[in-house]
Amino acid sequence: MRHAVNTTRSTIIQTPFEHEVAERLVAALQLEVMAEEIAPEAPLFGEGLGLDSIDALEIALFVGRDYGVALRSEDPDNAQIFSSLRSLCAFVQANRTAG
To answer: Which residue range or ranges hold the Carrier domain (predicted)?
Structure first.
């Protein structure tokens, strides 16, 4: 099943902002998990949520729309930015211009 959760209960400690982004992630990608089930440091792609490049485009769209942060496909830091919910949130918080 795509978008399986690869987490343990001890690692699921989201900040309020991580939970907000996780909720938007679940809604935008129509994931079959609840936002609180996404461990902040679990991989978003591959063995984690199993996201793919189309999902990355959807993430870039909602991050741009909701937070005013541009995620560009040619950014050499994308592997780090998209590595986990926590790293995505850190990037958004550091670069956000809208609410």
So the answer is: 28-91
Q: How far apart are CA 97 and CA 47, in angstroms?
A: 32
Other residues' Cβ atoms within 10 Å of the Cβ of residue 10: 7
Q: Quick one: CATH architecture of 16-95? A: Orthogonal Bundle (1.10)
Q: What is the DSSP string of 11-80?
A: G----HHHHHHHHHHHHHHT-SS-GGGS-TTSBSBTTSS-B-HHHHHHHHHHHHHHH-----TT-TTHHH
Whole-model pTM: value is 0.84
